[in-house]
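Appendix B, record 7
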Amino acid sequence: MFFKFKNKKITSVLAVIPNNVIKFEDEVEQYNFPVKRTLKMKDVMGYKEHRLFDEGIILSDIAVYGLEYLFEKKLLDKNDIDALLFVSNSNDYILPPTSNVIQGRLGLKTDMICLDIEQACAGFVVGLIQSFMMLDSGSINKIVLINGDTLKNKVSRRDRNSWPLIGEACGITVIENGDDSDIFASIYMDGVSYQALTIPAGGLRMPSTSETAKMQLLEDGNERALDNLTMDGSGVFNFVQTVVPVEIDKLFKYANVEDKDIFAYCFHQPNKFMLEKLADKMNISYKKIPSNIVELFGNSNSATIPLVVSFNYGDILQNETHKICFAGFGAGLTCASIIMNVGKLDICSVIEYGKNI
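Structure tokens (predicted):
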């Protein structure tokens, strides 16, 4: 499905990260594999270090902190926010929506819309598409999009396939009317393959119990419970290699742009190996598609894209405007992408939780 928008722009991108840095080498002995064998994965998969928030810190806390930072720096007026979108799998409660919780904690106006969207890896792009559609309503002028996850307690520390990659972060993006350039977007969803990336227990289909919490030693040598993240690595890799390049190529044709027109490819980062194989498949220079976020911070689901933008291009995009291709892909299985101009931002930065206010 394709979309075309006009008169919309991103005005701010802020990424909030933990200050806890965990080295890959510090955790190699917790897996059921020889240490030397595990260390061989470091460079190939991009296992360098990852960052996790302290226990008890959840995504709404981080979002409130980031928004208060923007208010404090006078980069955002809370009375100007017409919509708050919370795109995550890390909800405070089953109900109410976490966006309403954040609205209440910050004392935002009541004449606005709060909306939760349950999305993972593609959540940033899905959130942008939803924001652009809302701006077309005529009564909404400024939207705050919150992305990210705090899922460390849903990932087994004995699962070498997933734990080294898990990261936590929060992206806060401000979207509003303006800029007459065209924006092109596409979305692809394959619910038939939803089990390729899932947390089996904890929802209404299979509530968490003492049984779902029991760790199991699997045939591949990893240990996890039904309460933990389960990933069919080959299934996800196949999706990223076969579906994602085709869908992005379709978007390029729809937008009538070429690789030479794109300044940077700011993609979700599942791991370095998968991202570089995708770049090879699409004939993209590694210089134009950063893969350093998963190495330095871990995979924080949809927060990886705002982190890619702010960490790698912060200074540039505060002063210049460039055509960017965003793409998020993963759980669902979902692939969503956007081609748009981004630049002259009010802020495009990374801050550490608890250190900047």
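Remarks on this record: The chain has nine helices and 15 strands. Residues 233-255 form the longest helix (23 residues).
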